[in-house]
Write a structure and sequence with these properties.
Blueprint: E1 2-5, H1 10-22, E2 28-32, E3 44-47, H2 53-60, E4 65-68, H3 76-92, E5 97-103, H4 115-126, E6 130-136, H5 140-144, H6 148-154, E7 156-159, H7 171-183, E8 190-193, H8 201-212, E9 217-220, H9 229-237, H10 247-251, H11 259-265
Parallel strand pairs: 1-2, 1-4, 2-3, 4-5, 5-6, 6-8, 7-9
């Protein structure tokens, strides 16, 4: 049995879709906070609330493999407590192995973005359960979805990255990597540092220009980006998002999707002119 926790979220739903295609005969269970909102998942649904340890024990019972999708909680202390409850529940009911969606850098850094993930990796290691860590990068969707069509309309793609590279990956590719680990052997005790094809905003502007048949230019921002995006661009300017590894490519049956391919897909078969 494969149990997917936090299965009602965007990543969890993609994993369930991938499991249906890759292992149609497998017994799959979706653990969700509110089963009433998960009737469309197409698999057995159990209540599994990270804030309710008893529900986690019930949700994880019988699992040969558990995909522990990290909590969306922003408060680090609470997030660690939620993950601790999940790991303890998995140990208590005898889960065969845990596949945890961690974050790049969590193997060595215990500050900021990686603090809760670092702590969770240690909790899993100490549990003596078999495990695999999938250290995901930032989602490409966070950088691409809000701005590309507007950039084509205005002819300008604003950014504050100073042209540095970004190793983001699309949720679909990260979900498919998780499916591979959940449905094949040889991954126990491994940590995968997952990075997508490196891209820059000038390269993305060129791809948009070609795809839309409109001139789009990457333009440095004259003021900080809105909200949390300013923080992401600060990381990019520092070069912190340029790490490249072969791990994602090794888990996928096809090349990981690039930002340029995504840009082209927005205008496939049509022009704005």
């Amino acid at each position: 049995m494969i149990v997917v926790s936090a299965a009602g979220g965007a990543l969890g739903r993609l994993v369930l879709d991938g499991l249906a295609a890759a292992a149609p005969g497998a017994e799959v269970v979706a653990a969700v906070r509110d089963p009433a909102k998960a009737a469309d998942l197409g698999v057995t649904v159990r209540r599994g609330d990270y804030d309710d340890p008893a529900s986690l024990r019930t949700a994880f019972a019988g699992a040969d493999r558990l995909l522990l999708i990290s909590s969306p909680e922003l408060d680090g202390a609470r997030r660690i407590a939620q993950h601790r409850a999940a790991v303890e529940a998995a140990r208590e009911v005898g889960v065969g192995s845990i596949v945890y969606t961690s974050f790049l850098g969590a193997g060595t850094q215990a500050t900021g973005l990686t603090e809760a993930h670092y702590a969770t990796e240690r909790l899993i290691e100490d549990s003596e359960l078999a495990f695999t860590f999938l250290r995901n990068p930032f989602y490409s969707e966070a950088f691409l979805n809000p701005s590309l069509l507007e950039a084509v309309k205005t002819g300008e793609l604003p950014h504050g990255t100073e042209g540095r590279g970004l190793n983001t990956a699309f949720r679909r590719d990260l979900a498919d990597a998780a499916v591979r680990v959940l449905t094949s052997d040889g991954h126990a005790g491994r940590a995968y540092d997952l990075t997508g094809p490196l891209w820059t905003y000038p390269e993305l502007a060129a791809a948009l220009s070609a795809a839309s048949e409109s001139e789009v230019t990457a333009v440095p921002r004259t003021s900080p980006a809105p909200g949390a995006f300013a923080f992401l661009e600060t990381l990019a300017r520092s070069g912190a998002l340029e790490l490249q590894t072969p791990d994602l490519a090794s888990l996928l049956p096809r090349p990981a999707r690039s930002a340029a391919e995504y840009a082209a897909s927005l205008f496939a078969g049509q022009s704005l002119k």
